[in-house]
Amino acid sequence: MYGFINTCLRTLVVEKFGEETWEELRLLAEVQDNFMTYEIYDDVITLRLVQEACKMLDVTSEVVLKLFGEYFFSFCKMSGYDTMLRTLGGNLVEFIENLDALHSYLALSYQEMNAPSFRVERTNDGRTLLHYYSDRKGLHHIVPGIIEAVAKDFFGSKVTMTILEQPEEEERTGKKEHVIFLMTQTNEGAKTETHPNEENGAEQKDIAGKVMLNRVPHSFCPSYPKRLWIEEKAFCNAFPFHIVFDQDLTVKQTGVNIQKFVPGLQRTGIRLDEYFIVVHPEVTLNIHSIKKFINSQFVLKTKREMLPQSFQNQSMLKLRGQMVWMESLCCMVYLCSPKLRSLQELEERGLHLADIAQHDTTRDLILLNQQRLAEIELSNQLERKKEELRILSRNLEVEKKKTETLLYAMLPRHVANQLKEGKKVEAGEFKVCTILFSDVVTFTNICAACEPIQIVHMLNSMYSKFDRLTNVHDVYKVETIGDAYMVVGGVPIPKDTHAERVANFALGMRIAAREVTNPITGQPIQIRVGLHTGPVLAGVVGEKMPRYCLFGDTVNTASRMESHGVPDHIHLSPFTYRALKDKMFDIHERGEIQVKGKGLMTTYFLLQNLKLSEKQIMGKGKEETCVYRDDQQEAQSLDNKITAEQKNVSEKEERKSVEEQSRSSSAHFSVDDPSPQSSADVTPNISVVQYHLPDYSEPLDNGLPAENISINSRLCTLL
Asked: Which of 383, 527, 533, 674 has a C-alpha 20 to 30 A away from that of 490?
């Protein structure tokens, strides 16, 4: 099938069910996202899409195909075929009988089109039967959708189609599907145009007794001459491509030019089936079959072996035209023209425009279609370029996300966005935050005894675990220098729970470090951790490799807490202790120690969180993770905002409904009258807002977060 069909199916799914449904459907069917209009695709693609759509919607193929048929008619109108379809016939039967002719015309643009064929049959009992023929089995349910939509739109009538039988058609050659539908048409109301002079209808009816409102009336009766006023020679010259044959297919008369290209027709007593085969409709070449499909357009093709040797190297001549049965002569006349779609085909068959009668529109059609083919080729090129640009754009978006992921891993998101926009990032002062430093115990000795690659693997394993914890507790990783790891809470986004976040992060660091082994001893490594709380100044430093750095005495003090710490312990300054003492942490006093540059300080050791388990601190498993107070407040604020918006929308809809009721009601409420329904009776539809934390139990590669956004540890469900 051509891409036009698959594009229609894609548009139907997107319009009726949404882009997400199409994406899911195409992934299940394993097909591409877009289709080119004039490109040929395997029928399997379309059938696979239909099958998967049936499974997704839990309906039969009959329902899906009928829906597609209805939409296909609308899609053809939207694609520019509206006028062409409207002019096919004055009623539904004429419309159907001319569908084959329309397909023949479209084949000029869609050369490989394998369209179905239609035949209308009137039975003796007054029933109307529609015969449907197709090379594709299982798609006949599309037909009722199309015909019913056409009847409703073009002819203002309702049509019901019922499958009577699916017989094997003896006249048809090859493996074809033949389905017979019973068409029942009711409430037919032909659409008429209103003419300004209809007020004088009585006078208009008398004009010549034939013409009404400048249109031919439905009761028109043609007038025929008593004899045919044309001589045989003039007829054969005026219609250079025609054949007259009797019931036995014996050729009685031919046009002059068809004799020129099929010389054997000049002999008497030859049969039509000796020189021609039927291409369309695919029936056996005999009078009975031709009469049965008398309303179809017939395409005949010359037999190569019956032509002179000089003609056999050329492309075979195809004739397209109409069969007309002459009852008084018991003969059939085939009025035809060469079937050509371009000037190139005209040359390949040894023809010239002069060989075609001047009254024959085939001359104009060839010239017009030559331009049309050039436009189609240009359209194909544009579609291919568009598809290439779409793919490039999609790949560019993927690479952009990768770049942003790396950038956001180096700088805070809002800072990185400002730098991307070319703005200057001003330094900011934070009145309170909590800073953490850590290092590996005996790191110098480990480096002296190991290969550099072993050190790299050890640090990468440890830092990858730490980086994951920064996402769990929503703290910002400032930098790493050698074995030193620096983290801050409350910067660059202020948080009331900055001390709790960093404390839980420190507990998680200690647990994670035990999972990393010393490359010398094979034992778990030990780390020292120091925390301090206080004010800092933060800003971007440098242009070539900009870094978001912290400045102030708080940084120095936090570093001193780490350097004066004890292996496998978390060392707290008195300021951090005061921030944590009432927060369900187990903290022991270390006592007074001499701190370089600070003098005597009373410091503390953080042992554990009395409320949270190790799994919660590590953000592993399905157990509820840490929930921080400011996260709950932020989530509650967001939920209140959503609820307020929903309430406003509900109130607006209620007011609109009341206004409409008041306008349509016989009570005729005035503008100042109270509404008949109080808005207090309206219950807003409040949806559930959920915040989930991803499972971070899987290891991360390259020391970078798996997501390009910093994920808050929000795992609470709010109404």
From this structure: 527
Distance, in Å, from the CA atom of 117 to the CA atom of 128, rounded to the nearest integer, reads 17
H/E run at residue 138: none
CA distances from 589 to 210, 211, 437, 567, 598 (A): 115, 112, 20, 16, 18
Residue 317 per-residue DSSP state: P
Residue 530, SS3 per DSSP: strand
Asked whether 550 and 533 are in contact (CB, 8 A), the reply is no
Rounded Cα gap, residues 328 and 331, in angstroms: 8
- Per-residue model confidence (pLDDT) at position 631: 64
Query: Could you count the other beta carbons within 10 Å of the beta carbon of residue 20?
Result: 9
Distance CA 523, CA 538 (A): 38
* d(C-alpha 446, C-alpha 525), whole Å: 10
User: Distances from the Cα of 414 to the Cαs of 403, 470, 493, in angstroms?
Assistant: 15, 17, 10
Question: What's the pLDDT tens digit per position in 556-593?
Answer: 999 999 999 999 999 999 999 999 988 889 999 999 99
**Please, what is the Cα angle at 96 between 91 and 100, to 5 degrees?**
140
Token pair, residue 490, equals: 């409350």
Helix (H, G, I), strand (E, B) or coil at 625: coil
pLDDT in tens, 46-57: 888 888 888 888
Instruction: For 224, list phi and psi in degrees, rounded to 5.
Output: -115, 145
What is the spatial distance between Cα 622 and Cα 643, in angstroms, rounded to a whole number?
29
- For residue 691, give the 3-state DSSP assignment: coil
What is the sign of the dihedral through the CA atoms of 75, 78, 83 and 86?
Answer: positive
Q: Report the interhelical angle of 61-76 vs 3-17 (nearest 10°).
A: 110
Q: Which amino acid is at 138?
A: G
Distance (Å, whole) CA 652 – CA 657: 9
pLDDT, position 699: 34
Instruction: Report the predicted TM-score, pTM, of the whole model to 2 decimal places.
Output: 0.52
Q: Structure tokens of 136?
A: 């594709």
Give the span between the Cα atoms of 52 and 25, in whole angstroms: 7
- Parallel, antiparallel, or unpaired: how do β-strands 570-572 and 527-541 relate? parallel
Non-local (6+) Cβ contacts of 487 within 8 A are 435, 436, 466, 470, 475, 476, 477, 478, 502, 505
pLDDT per residue over 112-134, tens digit each? 788 888 888 888 888 889 988 88
d(CA 562, CA 287): 104
Number of residues assigned to the chain: 719
Distances (CA, A) of 618 to 144, 511, 697: 61, 8, 8
Q: Is residue 637 predicted with pLDDT exceeding 70?
A: no
DSSP string, 321-364: EEEEEETTTTEEEEEEEE--SSHHHHHHTT--GGGS-TT-THHH
Closest residue by Cα to residue 646 from 689, 690, 692, 678: 689
User: What is the three-class DSSP state of 371?
Assistant: helix
Cα-based angle 52, 54, 57 (whole degrees, multiple of 5): 105
